[in-house]
Amino acid sequence: MDMPGIPVLRGLPTIAQPTAGIKPAMAEISIAPPRPEDYPDWRRLYDGYAAFYKMPMDDAIAGRVWQWLLDPQHALDALLARDHGGKVVGLAHFRAMPRPLTGSTAGFLDDLFVDPRWRGRRVADQLIAAVAAQGRERGWTLIRWLTADNNYRGRGVYDRVAKRTMWITYQMDLPAP
Questions:
Q1: Hey, what CATH topology would domain 32-160 get?
Q2: How high is the pLDDT of residue 168?
Q3: What share of the chain is helix, strand, coil (3-state, %, to 5)?
Q4: CB under 8 Å to 108, separation ≥6 — which residues?
Q5: Edge-to-edge strand order for the sheet containing 104-114?
Q6: Other C-beta atoms within 10 Å of 120: how many?
Q7: Distances (CA, A) of 175 to 64, 147, 151, 169, 172
Q8: Calpha distance 98→169 (Å, rounded)
Q9: Residue 16 has pLDDT above 70, yes or no
Q10: Domains of the chain, residue spans
């Protein structure tokens, strides 16, 4: 029943009409390890990640991390999400982490960042799933990560794909001698 003065939206999903249109669409992306030619796109995202956490970033730091990612002997690994044109739209940096109390190995997700223009399309979910697939292949028992308390958008993703733990993180800075 139409009501005078109230616009009628027919055929469009609304919050009161749960349909597939309400849920974020899964982006059509590919996920693979970094290639040397990915550096400019990766650097743009990594700079955004550092800015989000208010961490200084310069060519020396970024260059060192990039070399780690391309070195198959280094502990740090990466997966990059690419759009259909090959542009990098998301990154995940991860590594193995020994778990002495269980005598097992887990994975640690160090960094996860998605281009703001690609958020809401489940790119982060797909990157986490790809890291989990790597972990299964490597025999990891779990994947663990940290995030800032005020990373509300990220925490929304993490609450959907994982469980929050009871652990509190401490840090002791070690100044150079």
A1: Aminopeptidase (3.40.630)
A2: 87
A3: 35, 20, 45
A4: 94, 95, 96, 97, 143, 144, 145
A5: 30-32, 77-82, 88-99, 104-114, 143-145
A6: 13
A7: 20, 24, 28, 19, 10
A8: 17
A9: no
A10: 32-160
